[in-house]
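Holo model, nickel (II) ion. Inputs:
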Amino acid sequence: MEALEKFLLEEFYWLHRHPELSFQEVETTAHLRDRLEEYGFRVLDLPLKTGIVAELGEGGPVTALRADIDALPITEQTGLPYQSERSGVMHACGHDFHTASVLGAALLLRERGDLRGRVRIVFQPAEEAPGGAKILMDQGALDGVSAMFGLHCSPQLSVGTVGIREGAVTASVDRFLIYFRGRGTHAAHPERGADPIPAMASFVQSVQTIMNRNVDPAEAGIVSVTHVEAGNTWNVIPDEALVEGTTRSFSAKTRALIRRRLYKLAEGTAAAYGVQAVIDWYEGPPATNNTPAWTELARKVARAHRLSVVEAPISLAGEDFAFYQEKIPGCFVLVGTGKSAANHNAKFRVDPCALVPTAEYLAALAAASLQELAS
Ligand code: NI
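Output:
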């Protein structure tokens, strides 16, 4: 056990020191390949630029454990002795913790002689981008997998606690860009043009009515306008005004409703002000969807490992593990990593004490799921 702890700490520190942005995880991938080959795992032959998938065990069924490996464009301010060595890049979402834990789980699984099938170890690139999950799916990395488990560290939960919830734990994520297109003119002669700014301003106000007038009050969701831009000086009415933002929800129905209403409001507002609305919509992942049976197993195994199990705090953040869950049943679990600044903050930190119990838990969960599948 001491050997495992030492190994996991070293891995975690190395990963933390060497963060790489989404789709640029070249060194991380090479490092993982070295480890996987060193310990005799079968690395799958996939045409991946970054990310790596390996397997252990024999025959079927197949269960999968997934870790994401990318970092964020943030300059670390934790002052930790193993702080990022790359200025402007930081593991501020704990994906280094996920990666080390899953690697630890793989080692523990290798030592067990009782695996009733195969475990696929998935180190996914670009969770933050997002897009990594989709690439792995498209390249067949998950073919033949019957159950799948993923984790996210949570600074809201203490070490030794896991948050598990049936259904959605993270939200669907969409991004919108709306260009209100008018006709620029002299600030002193608005009557000679079509000013896009009043349309933009009106839209920013009215878009909030989607959540409190259209969506069922019992349903969660958010519309956030995060970026507006128009004009560049004081005496010119611009041609165009931009509104950018994101929408989040837990159900497919609410997701579609928000989108529909947002289009109507943008187009209707534009028409009312005599300008045009051109809308770009980018669909991110759906909400996560933990299936009942695997959620129950995740709880059962956690309790057997003396972890305290709480209902996972729900979040309107996104998680591209949800793409896998559209095809493969499973459970996405929150693992307590102790008090810290929020994820995506320059002072975010994970308590490394959570590494060993998490690796043990994931290994046990993968083995138990194989047993379920085989029986
Ligand atoms: Ni994350």
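The pocket of nickel (II) ion is lined by residues 93, 95, 127, 152 (CB under 6 Å). The mean pLDDT is 96.
Archived with the compound record.
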